[in-house]
Amino acid sequence: MYEKIQETASWLKERMTTSPKTAIILGTGLGQLASEITDAYSFSYNDIPNFPVSTVEGHAGRLIFGKLGGKDIMAMEGRFHYYEGYSMKEVTFPQRVMHELGIETLFVSNAAGGMNPEFQIGDLMVITDHINFFPEHPLRGKNFPTGPRFPDMHEAYNKGLIELANSIAKEKDIRLVHGVYMGVSGPTFETPAEYRAFYRLGADAVGMSTVPEVIVACHSGIKVFGMSIITDLGLEGTAVEVSHEEVQIAANKAQPLMTEIMREMIRRS
């Protein structure tokens, strides 16, 4: 696998005309952030050697390079999910490639179901920590040389970046909430009992991505900032039906605010 990662990184380096230190993963319904990238050039996942291909509606499936907030960046428009049938090594393949390309900071975004009774649909939740509820761990198997066998995870989400997001949101009068994100395999949305259980375990929101990517980024020494758009609510005693289409609609409504915060964070960091 490590040879494939290096092969992919070499292929990209030969074609890159920029030198990004920052990467962004654009989640469900958040792909329009790509339109904010200037001087952009991109590669389809289909054309990149060894790259998986996204199969989820709403995920375009390309790697974009360009400028955002005046900084060179790279962005994944479409991520890979465990529920698609990929192994965790495949799900986190792009983060391994990012490390080889010299990425130092990773911004991750996702759509999530909120379980905290103080949350509202459309809220932006800064991820302060996570609970890994996936059945397979992305670091299982032979250890990659990018980090230790047993990496420390006490600060998976960089506190300095969280403080920066808080400051920017206050300046721009944007409501932010904070919470713990639980990563589950999906692809079913949660039952009422699962929402109750996850909330009692300490999670404020739940989704089907992000956690494996963050674990591998941390293992590779990459700083992480994470943000969820709360697209539905699973509050105790309230039965709520949800569909993928509704999640995308809610995410699309909230994404201009997330775009504004992330653009400014990248400019200042």
Automatic annotation (TrEMBL):
InterPro entries: Nucleoside_phosphorylase_d (IPR000845), Nucleoside_phosphorylase_sf (IPR035994), Pur_Nuc_Pase_Ino/Guo-sp (IPR011270), Purine_phosphorylase (IPR011268). It comes from the Bacteria. It holds the Pfam family PNP_UDP_1. Residues 22-267 form the Nucleoside phosphorylase domain. Its EC number is 2.4.2.1. Belongs to the PNP/MTAP phosphorylase family. The purine nucleoside phosphorylases catalyze the phosphorolytic breakdown of the N-glycosidic bond in the beta-(deoxy)ribonucleoside molecules, with the formation of the corresponding free purine bases and pentose-1-phosphate. This is Purine nucleoside phosphorylase. It comes from Hoylesella nanceiensis.
